[in-house]
Write a structure and sequence with these properties.
The structure is a single chain. The chain is built from 16 helices and 13 strands. It is of the alpha/beta class and 372 residues long. The protein has 2 domains: 172 residues, Rossmann fold; 182 residues, Glycogen Phosphorylase B (Rossmann fold), CATH 3.40.50.2000. Strands 3-2-1-4-5-6-7 form a 7-stranded parallel β-sheet. It has a 6-stranded parallel β-sheet with strand order 10-9-8-11-12-13, with helices on both faces. The radius of gyration is 21 Å and the shape is globular. The two termini are 22 Å apart.
Length: 372
């Protein structure tokens, strides 16, 4: 089975991590061969090529430049004609809106990574081409699909996530802490996510402001500016930390490609979303690394975090977040207890072999339908 994944490729976050995992682990299910059609060169295309995956450049596309859309569609149409692909998967509304109609004679799958609202312009454009099947990245996402594609069959498939754990954890831990001027005895709270407001970085800093008199903790914020509006948010976060008197204890690490090493050097992963998380690959990566996780009880986070591996706090409850963090900072035995359940929880939900096998089973049963 030859599968073509279609995506933009200009940013880097959860979808990009998923695509890289599929590329790197496709040998686990050799019945599927995965190729990737992207519009933009960047980190994703570079790392896909490094993994020896087939990467097809469709050319830069802007919806406001109709000629760029038509040119890219023409290139994809030719690729599908010559490539003998069995399935086309569009990851999100942007590629679905631009390229979904090109896959007229091939089963088309829409992989839904965000919860539809039914009103966004990209969603309205994506609706013009109905897929044969929908993969939802969580039950939370699946429950909103009728706003986009009513009466289309769907299935939940948690993203395959690899356990990228350093061979010598203690060496990595010491090296990273030395690089970041963080004492060995300091309890490190890390948030590794896109620099977006709904990810809750500001909420985390506010909670840590309540713990400024608690000794021996440091916070690492991993995630850099990828879009212009994120510059303003980053500056707000830095100002907030200074105003709360914890500016020297909150480190902004920018965009990093060594997240597994950062997780190996940390003690707690906290991503207190203030908006619903459609899934949460960062949470899975933290569990694999043996970190207890603290997150809010909205979106798909409740499908990932349970009492075996972390703490769920009420969304918007600043005091509860501060209290749970303080408990984990001051109680290493509790951290160890929660950490012991993390890897098995992550593997159960997102082990690459099981999830890619499930993907193969889903795609094998898709037939072309006549209402696209």
């Amino acid at each position: 089975m030859k599968v073509l994944h279609v995506y933009s490729g200009n940013l880097f976050g959860g979808i990009e991590t998923l695509l890289l995992t599929i590329a790197k682990k496709q040998n686990l299910v050799p019945q599927m061969k995965h190729s990737f059609a992207l519009c933009f060169e960047g980190r994703l295309s570079r790392e896909l090529k490094q993994s020896k995956a087939e990467v097809i450049n469709l050319g830069n596309v802007k919806l406001s430049h109709l000629w760029s859309v038509l040119k890219a569609r023409g290139k994809l149409r030719q690729i599908l004609k010559e490539g003998n692909f069995d399935i086309v998967i569009c990851h999100g509304c942007w590629p679905q809106a631009i390229f979904g109609s090109v896959a007229s004679n091939i089963p088309l799958v829409f992989w839904c990574h965000d919860t539809p609202t039914g009103t966004h312009i990209l969603e309205r454009l994506a609706k013009l081409t109905r897929p044969n099947f929908i993969i939802a990245n969580s039950r939370y996402t699946q429950n909103s699909l009728d706003l986009l594609y009513p009466n289309i069959p769907s299935e939940v498939l948690y993203c395959p996530v690899s356990a990228n754990i350093a061979d010598d954890v203690q060496f990595v831990r010491t090296s990273i802490r030395s690089e970041l001027n963080t004492a060995n005895e300091s309890v490190v709270i890390i948030q590794s996510s896109r620099l977006e407001r709904w990810k809750g970085q500001s909420f985390l800093i506010a909670a840590l402001g309540k713990l400024k008199d608690l000794p021996n903790w440091t916070c690492w914020i991993a995630g850099g500016v990828q879009r212009s509006q994120e510059n303003e948010y980053l500056q707000e976060l830095k100002n907030q930390a200074q105003e709360l008197g914890i500016g020297d204890r909150v480190l902004f690490l920018g965009q990093r490609s060594d997240i597994p090493n950062l997780l190996a050097a940390a003690d707690i992963h906290c991503q207190p979303n203030i908006g619903p998380e459609p899934f949460g690959i960062a949470l899975i990566e933290a569990l694999y690394s043996g970190l207890p996780i603290v997150t809010t009880n909205i979106g798909a986070a409740v499908e990932i975090c349970d009492s075996s591996c972390g703490r769920l706090v009420q969304s918007g409850d600043l005091q509860s977040l501060a209290t749970n963090l303080a408990e984990l900072i001051t109680n290493p035995s509790t951290r160890m207890q929660l950490a012991s359940g993390g890897a098995s929880r992550a593997s159960y939900l997102c082990g690459p072999h099981n999830q890619l096998s499930f993907l193969y089973d889903l795609l094998s049963n898709i037939e072309i339908i006549g209402h696209k």
